[in-house]
């Protein structure tokens, strides 16, 4: 796991890093655009990748996109990546005569 994946940043720090209000960050969570972890006490923890993602989401919103459009676009990109990964695994299996 990369340091960018570790969920260690509090919502207050994310707000400072992104310029977004804590309310806006929670809204993006409600809209299923970002997925912080929760500590046993309920504190949200974000990763550096989440920070980058929130900045990207804010830029898209500023450009006029709606949250459902962003989510739909990201789901489409994820499906494309899954297909690419399956194709690559198939090519590697064929090239090296590997079986699942």
TrEMBL record:
It comes from the Bacteria. Pfam families: MerR_1 (PF13411). The keyword Zinc does not apply. GO terms for molecular function: DNA binding; DNA-binding transcription factor activity. Keywords: DNA-binding, Repressor, Transcription, Transcription regulation. Residues 8-76 form the HTH merR-type domain. PANTHER family: HTH-TYPE TRANSCRIPTIONAL REGULATOR TNRA, REDOX-CYCLING DRUG-SENSING TRANSCRIPTIONAL ACTIVATOR SOXR. This is MerR family transcriptional regulator. It comes from Halalkalibacterium halodurans.
């Amino acid at each position: 796991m990369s340091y960018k994946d570790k969920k260690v940043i509090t919502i207050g720090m994310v707000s400072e890093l992104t310029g977004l209000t804590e309310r806006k960050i929670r809204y993006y969570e409600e809209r299923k655009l970002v997925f912080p972890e929760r500590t046993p006490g309920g504190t949200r923890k974000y990763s550096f990748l989440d920070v980058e993602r929130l900045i990207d989401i804010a830029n898209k919103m500023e450009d006029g996109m709606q949250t459902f459009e962003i989510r739909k676009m990201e789901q489409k990109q994820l499906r494309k990546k899954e297909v690419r990964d399956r194709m690559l695994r198939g090519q590697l299996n064929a090239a090296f005569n590997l079986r699942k």
